[in-house]
Every structure is written in C-alpha cells, then in structure tokens.
Amino acid sequence: MENVLGWLNANSAWIQAIPLICGVTYMTLQIFQHKWMWYFSIITSVVALIIASTNLENGVWAPLWAQVALNVYLIVIAVVGIFRWRTLDKESGGKIHVVPLGAKRLVVVCCIVAAGTPLLSWALSHTSDPAPLLDGASLVLSLVAAWLLSQSHIEQYLFWIAANGLIVAVYATQAKWLMAAMYSFYIVTCIIGFINWKKNGVVVE
After folding, report:
1. How far apart are the C-alpha atoms of 29 and 138, rounded to whole Å?
2. How far is it, in rounded angstroms, from Cα 75 to Cα 39?
3. Looking at residue 145, what is its pLDDT?
4. Are 132 and 124 in contact (CB under 8 A)?
5. Interval 55-95: pLDDT, tens
6. Could you tell me what percentage of the chain is helix, strand and coil, using 3-state DSSP and rounding each to the nearest 5?
7. How far, in Å, CA of 151 to CA of 183, rounded?
8. Which residue, 143, 24, 165, is CA-closest to 80?
9. What residue spans of 54-176 are helical by DSSP H?
10. For labeling, which of 61, 106, 125, 199 is most exposed (least CB within 10 Å)?
C-alpha cells in the first residue's frame, strides 16, 4: 500500500493532467449540452477519485474524504444523466433542454445545503481530512448541483460556481495546482454555460 501511495504521489503531476484534460472537455461539452459530456465526466471522476483517496500530507495518508465521496456520487449521477437526458432530448427536439426548478424544490435544495454543510463539516473534522470545512461545504453544494444537472435545471450552474470555488481552495491548500486549475476553469465554463442555456434553451417539463 505504501509503495502504491508513494508512486501515485511521485507521479501526481501527470496523473492530475488526465482529469484536467477530460474535465475541460466535459465542461466544454456541457455548455452545448452534448450527451458525450457524461462519459468524460465519468473518466474525470474516476481519476479524481484516485487522486483524492491517495492524498498524502507530510508523508502520512490523508484522503480528502469529501472529494472521495463526491466523485463516487458523480459517477452514479453521470449514469443517471445519460438516461434522463435521452428522454429530454426527445422532448426538446434535440435542442438544449431546460427544466424549470419549482419554488418548492428550490426551498428543499437550499435547506439541504444549510443543514448538510455543518453536519458534513463536523463529520469530516473527525477524520484525517485536512480541510473539513471547505470539503464539507463543497461536497454538499456539489451533490446538489450534480443532481440539478442530471435533471437539466439551469440553476445547477449557480451551485457549481460556489462549489468549484471552494474546491479550488481545497486543492490549493494541498498544492495540487493542476486540479485547482481545472476547477478554476470550471467556474469560467459555468458562467458561459449559464448564459448559453439561458439564451438558447428550450423549456421542457
């Protein structure tokens, strides 16, 4: 196990390049709501999962548990999104589809974020996670954003912007600069994506 962790951390720079390249592709495709984005999302999440679960701090194994959980969840959500978007594509005639987020669902989502952030941060503070508060908040926001994306709610971009900003801070504290760069790029593409979906999206129920 120590040999594996040592090798992964010794080769961290080029390993981080994999999710960076796939992540950039994924977010670019998301702007135009192309179905192949989900497959690049899976590749990105698998590699990011490996990076987060093998993190070392001062030579000691210190997994970023929130990022581990997040990337497992993102893999599942990508599968859900693949099948959900097939239906929405038919309803929108192959155009960008936007499903309205009702007031009741928005309230539920906000309550989940408000309650989940302190709860997860507290739980992570009892693990080896080096950044429990940032990780906890980013995890809750990302979980919500990923689900909103799978259901094609445009509001998902707002939650992703907040989550990605926190994730940039998490990876920056661990000197994983390529991962930080990837999530910084995500913020930019989220802004572009929001504008494009707003301008060209077809509302479907």
Report:
1. 23
2. 9
3. 95
4. yes
5. 777 777 778 777 788 899 999 999 999 999 999 998 888 88
6. 75, 5, 20
7. 22
8. 143
9. 65-92, 103-124, 132-150, 156-173
10. 199
Q: Six-digit token pair at 130?
A: 């080096």
Distance CA 193, CA 33 (A): 9
Looking at the predicted structure, is the pLDDT value of residue 8 above 70? no
Q: Residue 199 — φ and ψ, nearest 5°?
A: -80, -40
Structure tokens at 188: 């930019």
**Residue 61 — φ and ψ, nearest 5°?**
-60, 120
Q: Which amino acid is at 37?
A: M
Burial class of residue 126 (count of CB atoms within 10 Å of its CB; 0-12, 13-18, 19+): exposed
Reported confidence tier of residue 201, pLDDT bands at 50, 70, 90: very high
The number of angstroms, rounded, from the C-alpha of 13 to the middle of its chain's C-alpha atoms is: 20
Residue 136 clears pLDDT 70, i.e. is over it: yes
- Amino acid identity at 15: I
Q: Which residues are within 8 A (CB) of 202 and not within 5 positions of it... i.e. 6 or more apart?
A: 92, 93, 95, 96, 97, 98
Using an 8 Å Cβ cutoff, are 166 and 180 in contact? no
C-alpha span between 201 and 194 (Å, rounded): 10
Residue 57 parent element (H or E):
strand 56-57
Q: Domain map of the chain by residue range?
A: 2-203
